[in-house]
């Protein structure tokens, strides 16, 4: 069983109220092989919502802010925790998440300055899943056979 970002399965839950449908991921869901999750919605954030990015303070601690400088860290942490709980319940060993997202990004995320610059890093959900031995991919770096 996979867990997958809901926006990749055609659910309009992105920050801008849109989706990022991947036909391969949609097929996994339709076949009952994947459970959809949106960590940001699970954390209590609205659709649509202001864009958010991760920043690091001088001690390296990560926090999430929106484009208006509002701290959204707790909602992102709560969504990550709920996503992990769902993954455990369904027995997911692999997650396919939305690239570059402050929740779901894996390997590269935006730099926290809302200027489109990518840096090395993981979103809060991707990081938590990895810490709990769930393999994380993005839609950009996995080849799925359905």
Commentary on this structure:
- Helices cover 26% and strands 22% of the residues.
- It has one domain (2-138).
- It has helices at 23-30, 39-42, 73-90, 124-131; strands at residues 2-5, 34-37, 52-56, 62-66, 94-97, 108-110, 118-120, 135-138.
- A 4-stranded parallel beta sheet has the order 2-1-5-8, with helices on both faces. The chain has a two-stranded antiparallel sheet with strand order 3-4.
- Helix 3 (73-90) packs across helix 4.
- The radius of gyration is 14 Å and the shape is globular.
- The model has no long low-confidence stretch (mean pLDDT 96).
- The chain is built from 4 helices and 8 strands; from the N terminus they run E-H-E-H-E-E-H-E-E-E-H-E.
- It is an alpha/beta fold and 146 residues long.
- A hairpin with a 7-residue loop joins strand 6 and strand 7.
- This is DUF523 domain-containing protein.
- InterPro entries: 2-thiour_desulf (IPR007553).
- It comes from Holtiella tumoricola.
Descriptive key words:
DUF523 domain-containing protein, single chain, globular, 8 strands, two-stranded antiparallel ribbon, 2-thiour_desulf, 146 residues, alpha/beta, 4 helices, 4-stranded parallel sheet
């Amino acid at each position: 069983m996979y867990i997958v970002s809901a926006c990749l399965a055609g659910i309009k839950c992105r920050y801008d109220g849109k989706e990022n449908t991947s036909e391969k991921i949609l097929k996994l869901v339709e076949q009952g092989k994947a459970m959809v999750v949106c960590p940001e919605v699970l954390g209590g954030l609205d659709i649509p919502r202001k864009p958010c990015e991760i920043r690091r303070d001088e001690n390296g601690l990560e926090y999430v802010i929106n484009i208006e400088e509002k701290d959204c860290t707790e909602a992102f942490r709560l969504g990550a925790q709920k996503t992990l709980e769902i993954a455990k319940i369904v027995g997911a060993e692999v997650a396919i998440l939305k690239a570059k997202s402050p929740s779901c990004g894996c390997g590269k995320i935006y730099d926290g300055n809302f200027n489109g610059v990518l840096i090395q890093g993981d979103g809060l959900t991707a990081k938590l899943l990895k810490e709990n031995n769930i393999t994380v991919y993005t839609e950009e770096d996995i080849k799925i056979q359905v």
